Amino acid sequence: MLYLTLFLIFARIGLFTVGGGAAMLPLVCQALMERGWMTLHETIDMAAISQMTPGPFAVNAATFTGMRLSGVWGAAAATLGVMAPSLVIVTLTARWFFKFKDARAVQAVLKGVRPVIPALIAASVWMMAGPSLTASDGTPALPLMVTALAAAGLARKLNPAWVILAGGVAGALFFRPLP
Amino acid sequence: MFRVGLFTFGGGYAMLPQISKEFVDKHKLISEEEILDIFAAAQSLPGVIAVNASVLTGYRAAGMAGALIAALGATLPSFLVLIPVTVFYEAFLTNEYVAGALMGIRAAMTGALSAAVLRLGAKPLGDIWGWCLFLPALALAVFTDINVIWIILAAALAGYLKYLWERRKSA
Lengths: 179, 171
Fold this sequence. Notes:
The complex is a heterodimer of chains A (179) and B (171). Chain A has 179 residues and is mainly α. Chain A is built from 9 helices and no strands. In chain A, helix 1 packs across helix 4, helix 3 crosses helix 4 and helix 8 runs antiparallel to helix 9. Chain A starts with a helix and ends in a 5-residue tail after the last helix. Chain B contains 7 helices and no strands. The interface between A and B is large, with 116 and 98 residues.
């Protein structure tokens, strides 16, 4: 039952996402590649497309993945899955969320999780760096430059979507796949 | 909410100012102070920030039904946009310009993610405690196949144990 599996996988991803969309990426990568559902290249494309298209990253990523694996119903299952934990937890706690926010134990748990999130994203970068720094026609220098530029641009609070889009334009102009 | 979802590029954080503009300034459904509490809660509760914020805002403005409608409103545009985009991706994967663009996108994405690491790491890595969690997590994620959920749970447990330890010391 692929739809149910998609729903459950993305519900788990939604549940363990603390922080922004990028925090979710390591979870998605692992879930998809472990099952052989997507290659590393496809996963990177998925992340880039989710970042560039309007809407929250998590929802975009779920829709794209579900759609690729089993069409519109797969997309619906994955998207509902990623929303489900938020809906359940938030509506349950909405009544007392003012108190909840200040609970010191909750803050302590978050203080443990927060340093780990950048570590997990760094690990994804480590994995992606290999295949993304050389174009398949063998020009390594330029992508590297684009990468450096992107990192520098973001430090100044530029929307990452523009950096990625610029990378795409540069790629369309300069990179050719091998025949 | 549908409109908010449609005009959010680049993740949940970009969405928060939009929500505030629609609900506080334009429709006056929620006070300025309340919206700040909602954003704080959206970021610290588990789940996707954008969906959390929508659900909380909807709940505040119109109860349970409001929460459901806001969540759907925030996700529907993404869903509708991504379906044709995915079809397009599959169909044009072999086109040489699209393939070239994707190579550029992969390189830029890697750069953008590195920047995200720096941004998200800046605050929690301000003390030794942060590094004690960061380095082992990085090593585990890079060199082993361990499920990242376990790493997150272990870090949560570490945070809780530290809290108990400090409370006992001060008591």
